[in-house]
Amino acid sequence: MDRSAFEGVLKSFYAARVAGEPDELGEMFAENAKFQIAGSPEYSMLATKVQGRDGIVSLFRTIADSFGLEDFAVQDMLIDGNKAAVRWTARVQNITAGDSFATELADFIEIENGKIISLNEFLDTALAG
Question: Are 123 and 103 in contact (CB under 8 A)?
Fold first, then answer.
């Protein structure tokens, strides 16, 4: 996959993420993909690892039901072969608690045959709940 096509996948991914579309996001993942929100599960319920498209869709559905994104902006996008590092910012609405906060996240994404096979996300899990 060339750089332009990779960027297209990433732009589609983040558009679906901001729109809160878990099924659309799921279509972008390989069947046996891995998704991890880095952190310590002992201290944050957000820190988790999921394998498989169905589990990833379920997790994104939970995230979409709990958090909304506004003022989304990609700060940096580095692509090397089939891997990317994306640093992004957003104002996150905690739907459950009714508050919002500005934050920065970093995603490390690997793509194979046009599908995401690995997503490792780093965020302030304490701030998010």
Answer: yes
Contact 103, 90 (CB under 8 A): yes
Q: What is the pLDDT of residues 36-83, one digit of tens each?
A: 999 887 777 788 999 999 999 999 999 999 899 999 999 999 999 999
d(CA 124, CA 25): 22
Q: Is the pLDDT reported for residue 21 higher than 80?
A: yes
What is the pTM for the complete model shown?
0.91
